[in-house]
Structures are given as structure tokens and as C-alpha cells.
Amino acid sequence: MSEPDVLTRIDWVRQGCRLLAHIADEFARTKPFAGLSMATGIHLEPKTAALLMTLKAGGAQIIATGNLNSTQPATVDYLRNQGIEVIGAQTRDAKEHGAFLDSIIARRPDLILDNGGDLFARYASSPYAGLIGGTKETTSGRTRLEPMRPKIGLPVLVINDSPIKQFAENRHAVGQSLFESYLRFTNRSTNGKRVTVFGYGACGRGTAACFRNAFSAVSVVDIEPVTALEAHLDGFNTPQRGDAIRSADVIITVTGHPDIVTVADLPLLKDGVILMNGGHFPQEIAVDAMRTHPSVGYVDGYAEEGIETLVLDDGRRVHVLGAGHMANLAGPRPLGNTVESMDLGFALQARCLERVASRTLDSSACVIPVPRDIDAAVASAYLEIHR
């Protein structure tokens, strides 16, 4: 009997991305991106490697960089070994990360795969000839780019506005991965914990449901009255904001907006509370301002665990996971969302980039949802594989 191969997590993930594998086989024949350069600014982790290899199979010349804090060195090494150019490395320094993005857009790519709107925002401020268009992954990026439509004026398909992305990844997978991340970071029980979830969009719904299913007492805070009513009718507590903060053992932000929990909330926080962010950008919890606030005497750090503890002058301790970065791609052995959910989401990415590269869309498709025929085709293909 021969010795077994020593495989990696990237190998495991690529084996599980069955939909992307089918698309890669097709792209290897059809070459929809032949002769085109493609810039990507997206979390560089094993599931992204499966997507980028699929696009490479279609003939794309890829120049990639990651997002703030989430770049995984093993994935960078893998991509470079596969002939994909990667600019930069893991960093929490926004200025350094910005320089990576500047280097990417300076290459004047033909297509852009964006996450958070960083690359398209740079294009809008300094446009160049030859960009065909691209895709945008998140709600936060769509909100950022909508006012820039006149300056962009090119097809940009928003993956997050697909119903598939909303229920498969945002509701199911984000909730599962944030729950997993809480356990992974803290090794603490959820039973009987009072958990406050800020935001009741798709990600908030999934997060609230996962913690309730793990026997936590979950409260939801959302500034939209209709959304808060939905949470109430779904059986969650919907207290006033201050009461929700005071009572919480765990606070989770999943809104896509900055300054959800700030230094003004320090007097309200319970001793031992755990703060955790699930949004794309790290500003939902104002961690930097909290660290330097006069009421914080000192900060303890559990470096290997990705936990820091703010010790207030009155003795209260506030625990922050992953420095306020997106928890499911931070801390020890970050896994992100489930393989199957990202297989679906990245299949949407691949098909949307294929559509943009076909040059059959015009400026009326600037920052719009995934076309319905692509949603239907991806859903049908996934069901055929998994039935």
C-alpha cells in the first residue's frame, strides 16, 4: 500500500467546491476571460483560492490582493505557486492595505472583482480607459458605490443582492460561522448567555437564530422599526438600545455600518462582556477609540487567542475578539463561511464576471443585482450536483 498524500486545507476546500469545479472545467474549454486582466480585492483564504483558480482556468490574468486583516499566508503561497500574482500580505494597517489597493488599480485591469468597494472607489476617483466593469461582493460596498454610479458608468453586478447570497451565505453561513468563531475564540458556553445582536438583516437573522438555537437569550437591536418588528415577531427580545447593551454578556455587530458600539457605551457595558464584529469593515466597534479612552486603565492581550481585554478604572473588563475585525476570518485558525455557501456565492461571482466580460451589458447595469437568469442557472446547477 502506497503512502497517503499529505493534503492541505486548500485541497479539502477545493474538493468541496463542486460547483466551482464544474465551472472551471467549462471555462477551460470556453476561455471567457482570454486576453483580459482581472484585479481582485477580496479575502484571501482557501475558498477564495478555489474561485481564483476557476477564473484563471477561464484565461484571466489575475492580480490579487486581500482585505484588511484577513489575508492568510498559506493561501498567498498557494496562489503564487499556481502562477497568480498576489500583491501585499496580511495587515491591520489601513494605510499599508491602501497602498496594496493602489498598486492593484495602477495596473489598469480590464475587470475588477471587488469586496467592500475599495477598487471601484479608486477607479471612480481616477478613471482610466479600458475597464469593462466587474462585480461587487458585499452590502457595505454596494452602499458605498451607489452614489458613485455617474462616475463609474460601467456594469457592476452586486453579488450580495442575489437572493442566493442572502439566504445561503448571509443568513445561514454567516450565522453559523460567527457562532463557530465565538466558540473558537473563547471556548466558553453559550447556554443561558444574554446575547445582543446589532442588525437584523440577513446576517443578523442567521446570527440571532444560531445563538438562540444554542440556548442563549437573544436580543436584537435595529434602527429600522419595521425590521425591529420582524425580529420581535420572530420571537426575539427587542429592548431599547441602552437596555440591550447593559444586559449583554455578548454583543455582536452585523450591520455593515461604522460606530455601532462606541466609547459612549463604555459606562453601559457589563463586567466581562465580549464584543464581536461580523461586519465587513472593522469600524462597527470603535476599538481604537476604546483602547485610548481615559476610563480604560490598561489593556491585557491574549495574543495567541486573538483576544484583548480592556480593563476599566472601576475594575470592569471588556473582552474584544479579533481587534474588532470580522471575527469569522480573524483569530486562531480562521475558517470563514462554510465551503458549500461560498461555492454558491463564488459561482455567482464567476458567472457574473463571465457576463460582464461578454460586453453585453451597458452603463444601466452599474451597481445592480445579479441578473435573474444567472441566479436560476446557479441554483439549478447546485441542485443537480447535490440532489
Automatic annotation (TrEMBL):
Where's the S-adenosyl-L-homocysteine hydrolase NAD binding domain?
Answer: 170-334
Query: Which cellular component, as a GO term, is one annotated location?
Result: cytosol
User: Which SMART domains does the annotation name?
Assistant: AdoHcyase, AdoHcyase_NAD
* Listed GO biological process terms: one-carbon metabolic process; S-adenosylmethionine cycle
Q: Does the keyword NAD apply?
A: yes
Cofactor(s) for this protein?
A: NAD(+)
Keywords noted in UniProt: Hydrolase, NAD, One-carbon metabolism
Reported EC number(s) for this entry are 3.3.1.1
Molecular function per GO: adenosylhomocysteinase activity
Is the keyword NAD in the record? yes
Kindly give the NCBIfam families that the UniProt entry links to this protein.
PRK05476.2-3
> Record's family?
Belongs to the adenosylhomocysteinase family.
Q: What is this protein called?
A: Adenosylhomocysteinase
Instruction: Report the source organism.
Output: Rhizobium rhizoryzae
